[in-house]
Amino acid sequence: MQLGMVVGTVVSTRKSENLQGLKLLIVQQLTHTYKPLANYVIAVDVVQAGTGDVVLYSEGSSCRQTAPTDKRPVDGVVMAVVDTWEVGGKEIYNKSKTDSAPL
């Protein structure tokens, strides 16, 4: 799993039948210190995340291990919306205290 921030959505009206009904998000990877990286992934949303949310996402074959993505051609999945995290006893992120821009 990796930390990321939802920065947008992808809409596709013509796609494989196996992708019908799946919401697609653009996720920018974050470091453990809440700094944005230049890496982006398109991920299926299975937790009702939205733009600006900090999320946990995964890539690769493990993405097909959620009920909504089982046996679908998916290589990225958002599986959790992050409320808080800390590193070394220091709170790095708190959803209720932080706006959507990385520090």
TL;DR?
The protein has 103 residues and is an all-beta fold. It has no helices and 7 strands. It has a 5-stranded mixed barrel.
Write structural notes for this entry:
A hairpin with a 2-residue loop joins strand 6 and strand 7. The protein has one domain (2-94): OB fold (Dihydrolipoamide Acetyltransferase, E2P). The chain is elongated, with a radius of gyration of 14 Å. Strands 1-2-3-5-4 form a 5-stranded mixed barrel. It is built from no helices and 7 strands. It has strands spanning 2-10, 23-30, 36-45, 54-59, 76-81, 84-87, 90-94. It is mainly β. The model has no long low-confidence stretch (mean pLDDT 90). It is 0% helix and 47% strand.
Helix-strand blueprint:
Layout lengths: L1 E9 L12 E8 L5 E10 L8 E6 L16 E6 L2 E4 L2 E5 L9
Parallel strand pairs: 3-5
Antiparallel strand pairs: 1-2, 1-4, 2-3, 4-5, 6-7
**Order of strands across the widest beta sheet?**
1-2-3-5-4
Quaternary status of these chains? single chain
Strand content: over 45%
Overall SS class = mainly beta
Number of domains: 1
How far from one another are the termini? 21 Å
Q: Assign the CATH class.
A: Mainly Beta
Low-pLDDT ranges:
none
Reading the helices and strands in chain order gives EEEEEEE
Instruction: Estimate the helix proportion, in percent.
Output: under 10%
| Beta strands, count | 7
Query: Count of helices?
Result: 0
The main pleated sheet reads as: 5 strands, mixed, barrel
How does the overall form come out from the CA principal axes?
elongated
Gyration radius, rounded: 14 Å
In CATH, the topology is named OB fold (Dihydrolipoamide Acetyltransferase, E2P)
CATH 4th-level superfamily? EutN/Ccml
CATH architecture annotation: Beta Barrel
The mean pLDDT is 90
